[in-house]
Amino acid sequence: MRRGLKHQGSRVRPVLAVSFLFLLVGALLAIPAVKAPDGTQDGGTGDDASDASGATDATGTTDPFASFDPIIRDFSFAGVDGVDGLASLSPDEQLTFTVVIFGAGAEVDAGHVYLGADGGTPFQACEQTQPLEQLWTCTYSAATSLYSPGMLTKSVWVDHRSMSATGFLDGQGPGITSVRLSPAGLTLSYLDGIGALNVNGCAGLGEVALYTDLTEEPLRVWEQSDPRCANSVTLPVNMSALVPAGEEGTLQLLVVAKDRVGNAGASRAVSYDYDTLAPGITYDTASYNGHPFTFLRAGSRITVRVNVTEASTVRADFTGIGANPANMEAACTAVAAGYRCVWQTVVADTPGSFSVTATDAAGNAASQDFSLSWSVDDSGPRSPQLSGGVDVDGTAYVKAVNNTFTLTLVDEGSGVANAWLNLQQLDPIAYGAAVLADACEAAQGAWRCVWNNVHVSIASGSSATVAVSRAADALGNLLSEHADLTVVVKTSKPRITDISINCTRPGGEARGICAEGDLMTVQANVSDPLPVTVLFNLSHIYSGRAADEVVCEEGRCVLSLAE
């Protein structure tokens, strides 16, 4: 207990030594002690008006202290909270003054114990609280509203002796100057008394309460005992008990501080942004070279994308599908629906699953497993067939410009992605050893790669070899077989060796002059290794007749007309 300051009066009876008492016992028995009018002890005659038997004071009541000197052992005051030397000034508060007196066997009367001055306000009640020690406790209570805030000094008077007690009357609750709620706890700074009362002293902090509504019971109360007028304190808070699970939002709370004598200060609002909602994770895509895949081979580097609902640290464990570390952090960028997180990882030779964990800034974490499937493709294209130009009895002829070469391949896996031809022998200056195909496409159960508009710079009649330099499927598996084509350059025009016209009568007789009704045959003989088409223009014989197109067979081009 904090005690008020006390002062014992100067008149204290000396205590005689025991041996000296034995020597004087006879004299003391013969001459009874009588108190002088000023309160000091004096020898009495037995018939003095102030003698112990029936002595009265100015009030006409029996003076309990007529035959002995009382000793004030203790004097203090407190409010209803019982903290010595401190009390609140709230309207319903009572201030109780308490004095403990050594009574030497007499009945101590409250009417002879005074507050404030000798003969002043009498105390209200006295009772013997410790009979064996002959101690009496007297009390006086009054509303604290009778007093002014600040330091209070009062004295008690017993038989002209006094003792003082000093304490503090606190007129207001602690003011919260700052408050913050965080996972570390509730941190508040308070100011009690100083400045507002312009006095020295305060009751200090006694209680802090946390509310969602001041009309309801507090969520949490912290009992404190801090006599300082200004201080900062951090109190533990179980945040998981205050905020709902699986949500995001702001918690609005009210904080009230009371001092040690029960004065409550004004409430102070505090808000706390909480996040107990774990990020959501959804699968987006997996691709190889920017495209979805059906086939992969061991060592293929794929790109995996997932979506998360909020900014998070996102890590993946790809050990189920490859040889990458188990704790790969993704690169995440904001998108319309949240965040897209991307990894590149190398797969093993069999499909499997991977797991993703997302942890947001509040520490909420979520994990999700995803499966990836593919067929293993570890072999390249096969069965190459190279064609080009015009084939005549197994010989391929090419012209000077606009030649086309076609490579046909079989691939049951990821498909042919590209192929290269060595065209150097056709034009050593313009072409290199590997010319990329214009296109590779699936066609009729196979794959066909085409080189268009190939030109030739070597002399007509020369032969050249066109070879496949390289062919690969979409996973990089290479063609292991060889394919080439030998071509003959033909840049010369077909040569007409002769032209003849024959007429035949209806009976089959040939004649040199054609008459009406005869069958006229026009024949042109052409020299060329390639198939030739001849146009016969007979418009000078048959007016308005369009040219006739004839396909030559083995160098003979024949047109038959009936006259």
Describe the structure.
By secondary structure, the protein is mainly beta. It folds into 5 domains: 5-169, no CATH class; 175-275, Immunoglobulin-like; 281-376, Immunoglobulins (Immunoglobulin-like), CATH 2.60.40.10; 382-489, Immunoglobulin-like, CATH 2.60.40; 495-562, no CATH class. 3% of the residues lie in helices and 50% in strands. It is built from 2 helices and 45 strands. The strands form 12 sheets. Strands 1, 5, 7, 8, 11 and 12 form a 6-stranded mixed β-sheet that branches. β27 (352-360) and β28 form a beta hairpin. The termini are far apart.
**Shape descriptor:** rod-shaped
Portion of residues within helices: under 10%
Mean pLDDT equals 84
The N- and C-terminal alpha carbons lie at a distance of 147 Å
Domains (count): 5
User: Which structural class matches the secondary elements?
Assistant: mainly beta
Index terms:
mainly beta, 6-stranded mixed β-sheet, Immunoglobulin-like, single chain, 563 residues, rod-shaped
What's the quick description here?
With 563 residues, the chain is mostly beta strands. The protein is built from two helices and 45 strands.
Give the topology, please.
Blueprint (H helix, E strand, L loop, with lengths): L4 E4 L9 H13 L2 E3 L5 E3 L27 E8 L7 E3 L5 E9 L10 E3 L5 E2 L2 E6 L4 E9 L6 E9 L2 E10 L4 E8 L2 E7 L13 E7 L8 E7 L3 E6 L3 H4 L5 E12 L8 E8 L5 E7 L7 E2 L4 E8 L3 E6 L10 E2 L1 E5 L2 E9 L5 E9 L4 E8 L2 E2 L5 E7 L1 E3 L2 E4 L4 E8 L5 E7 L12 E2 L2 E5 L2 E9 L8 E11 L10 E6 L5 E10 L5 E2 L7 E9 L5 E4 L11 E4 L4 E7 L1
Parallel strand pairs: 5-12, 21-29, 32-39
Antiparallel strand pairs: 1-12, 2-3, 4-6, 6-10, 7-8, 7-11, 9-10, 11-12, 13-14, 14-17, 15-16, 15-18, 18-19, 20-22, 22-26, 23-24, 23-27, 25-26, 27-28, 30-33, 31-32, 33-37, 34-35, 34-38, 36-37, 38-39, 40-41, 40-42, 42-45, 43-44
